[in-house]
Specification:
Elements (H helix, E strand, L loop, with lengths): L1 H13 L5 H34 L2 H9 L6 H16 L2 H19 L3 H11 L9 H9 L4 H29 L1
Helix pairs in contact: 2-5, 2-7, 3-5, 4-5, 4-6, 5-6, 6-8, 7-8
């Protein structure tokens, strides 16, 4: 990343005749915009690691072993809850895998379908603590309310349709 920033400074700034002060001002504005997103993603990654290292993921997985619900729906729901709490789809997916992995092995669930179910669940209800939410908001110059009405609703629809698709595939595969 550092190399790309230095190349951008040179080719998009200095080589185009912009002053160093002007280039630094542009960098300052860019870093202000992206810093909150980086903090959110880093915090979510730290939370995921705490759950994993503390054994919480394994403990929850053991508790869920006796639940009378499809493991695919369970994986989707776990990823969804984590996504809503943490904000990061990546962290939600990885944490849900750690929790649901014992069920996949013990109940004979097709791992490919579980990947799709967890991936679908990890997309649900993107909101203020999601880096993608802020990227969408900034790129399209929307208010927070408009972003909730568009991005969040769209992500939730994608998640639900994804789960339905996985459940249909489960009937045929």
């Amino acid at each position: 990343m550092l190399i790309s920033v230095l190349v951008a400074i040179y080719f998009l700034g200095i080589k185009r005749g912009r002053t160093t002060k002007n280039v630094m001002k542009s960098l300052e504005e860019a870093f202000k915009s992206v810093s909150i997103i980086l903090l959110i993603v880093a915090g979510a990654g730290g939370f995921k690691q705490i759950l994993t290292d503390g054994g919480v993921s394994k403990y929850i997985g053991e508790l869920l072993a006796g639940v009378e619900i499809s493991p695919l729906i369970l994986g989707w729901a776990i990823a969804g809850v984590i996504r809503i709490c943490v904000g990061s789809a990546t962290v939600a997916g990885l944490t849900a895998v750690g929790i649901i992995a014992p069920l996949v092995q013990s109940q004979g669930v097709k791992p490919e379908l579980m990947v799709l179910a967890i991936g679908s669940g990890s997309l649900i209800c993107s909101h203020l603590n999601d880096g993608g939410f802020w990227l969408f908001k900034e790129y399209f110059n929307l208010s927070i309310k408009e972003t909730l009405q568009t991005w969040t609703v769209m992500e939730t629809i994608v998640s639900i349709v994804g789960l339905l698709g996985v459940l249909v595939l489960d009937q045929f595969v």
